[in-house]
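Bug #2210: token dump truncated for ESCRT-II complex subunit VPS25?
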Amino acid sequence: MPPSTEPFPFPREYHFPPFFTRQTNLTTHHAQLTKWSALVLAYCRHHRIFKLPLTTAAAASSSTSSTTDPLQSQSQSQSSSATDELFHNKTLNRRLSPADVREVIDFMCKEGRAEYCSPGTGQAGGDVAWIYWRSPEEWAQLIEGWVDETAQKGSVLTLYELVEGDGTLGTDIHGIDRDMLHRALQLLVKRGRAQIFGQEDSQGVKAPGDPIHRTPSIAPKSLH
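Reproduced locally. Full output below:
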């Protein structure tokens, strides 16, 4: 499913200047972080942003890390342009500071709704963060549900078919970030619900079906 072309409906607090200023009262600040977390999740879901470049989001810059994967490059470009407004209300001329942006992401990490992609957390590093508007576990469940609904059990599908094929059109699976797809499939593999074949550039997956049972190898009996 492609990102929505409709403008994102920002919540009312986004239109008030204090929302962009760190609140000193602990209770008020926790409520502020909770609202920012909900906003980031809703915004990223609306625009189908899987990885949020924090420097770009905080500074409203179009600069992102380079990649050799054109699909990933397109995804990063979309997330960069889409996040220009997330932490920056141009009408109010108010912007959440880079330190406060990281605090929001740190808060989301503790809640299990975000995860840093690069080494380090918070002030220690992490320029890009996964935003879990749907977690890897939830993606795995969605893929397994789609397989059941479309009678694909036992079929072998290429990753391209899952990401861009006609079969997933109209579902959230269509257009999924490739790295997120791999993470979701690995969860299914660990449960014996899927098998991955081939090389990185042409991988296929045996659609989840009955758990895959591996017969343990039996050592030959010694001859006496």
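Output looks complete on our side. The CA atoms of residues 17 and 93 lie 9 Å apart. Marking as cannot-reproduce; reopen if the truncation happens again.
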